[in-house]
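Chapter summary example: a protein plus oxalic acid.
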Amino acid sequence: MFGTLSVTLLIIAPGERPDWWQREFARLVPDLEVRAWPDVGDPADIRSALAWKPPSDELAKLPNLKAIWSMGAGIDHILVDDALPDVPITRVVDPYLTAGITEYVLLHVLRYHRNQPVFEAQQRDHVWDDRARDLRQADERPVGVMGLGELGRDAVAKLTHLGFDTAGWSRTAKDISGVACFHGPDGLAPFLARSEILVCLLPLTDQTAGILDRDTLARLPEGAYLINAARGGHLVEADLIDALAAGQITHATLDVFHEEPLPGDHPFWDHPQITMTPHNASITDPRSVVAQVAENIRRLEAGEPLLHQVDRVAGY
Ligand code: NDP
Ligand code: OXD
């Protein structure tokens, strides 16, 4: 595919598994030279970088860098670098990544809809009591999804298919069959007021940082549930703990945190009303995403428009 062109790719993703990616690149594009940080070799060789949480300043050390491929759907982990080179950034849009998030959302929405945390606690206490399972049907359970992009649209469509009373909130207006659509700052309050189960699938930007705060949580129906599979920076953690204590929020599922890994002494670990997963609601699968990166490398060299290029100013 690349012949004699020197288009060396650097994988810069500390803590991830570069060998998974190298194996897939070797299988699909054997003539592409792929290096894994910190073994950069001559930095001048590197034309593009596949990045997940790249250490600050490292990308700026690559004088011939022409593009950055985010290893995930989000790009916030790249934009935090103050020395970030001014080159195009793309992100992952992939059916497996989307399916993983939708599975996560369905799993946890259904868990709350069926009051499963109560039955788990009862089992721990050897209690047989069926009263916590009420007669409420899915079409009587309002679920709200923040973010109606690649991930939010799929999740809300599948929730609608299951019969839930669904709503979504986005920046620009949408028209999605069977979904009550709200948008912009004015649409937020009415959207929240009807969301008994709130799912966050927003990108982390200047506009969305800290959006899951005291005020937002207070606008939900009393006793609501929260599922955050987007970014830890969306949530004001102390406000969630207060809202759980006050009964405003019954239970929360969190996949993402301000600090990852979550520090061992963080109050979330032992909180009875919090369910945690270690930022793996969905996982980028090299088996499908390597082809996308290889195609973008080809496009970069051919001067063609890149797939899934993000707007660096908007932040997503
Ligand atoms: P998209 O860019 O496709 O969609 C983003 C959505 O958010 C759009 O509907 C957009 O509105 C909306 N949005 C952005 N800013 C605002 C705002 N200020 N107010 C209201 N709505 C806003 O992103 P994806 O769906 O692909 O991914 C979303 C996020 O999910 C990622 O950025 C990442 O952080 C997270 N993620 C988490 C994973 C995990 O494992 N936990 C895995 C993958 C992703 P509009 O349509 O009008 O532009
Ligand atoms: C992503 C993620 O952004 O996994 O893709 O968080």
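Key point: The radius of gyration is 21 Å.
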